[in-house]
Amino acid sequence: MLIGRRGAPDGLVGERPQGLATAPSGYFLCTVLKLSQDDARACGADGPKEVVVKRGWLPAAAAEAKQWTRPAGEVEVTGVLVPGEKEATFSPPNDPESGTMLWLQLPVLAESLGVSQEVLLEVVAQDENARDDSQAQSGKKAERRPASWPMARGAKCFESFNVMPETHAVYAATWWSLSAFGLGAAVKLLRKPAPPAAKVAAAVTAATAAAASASGPLK
Question: How far apart are CA 51 and CA 57, in angstroms?
Answer without folding.
Answer: 18
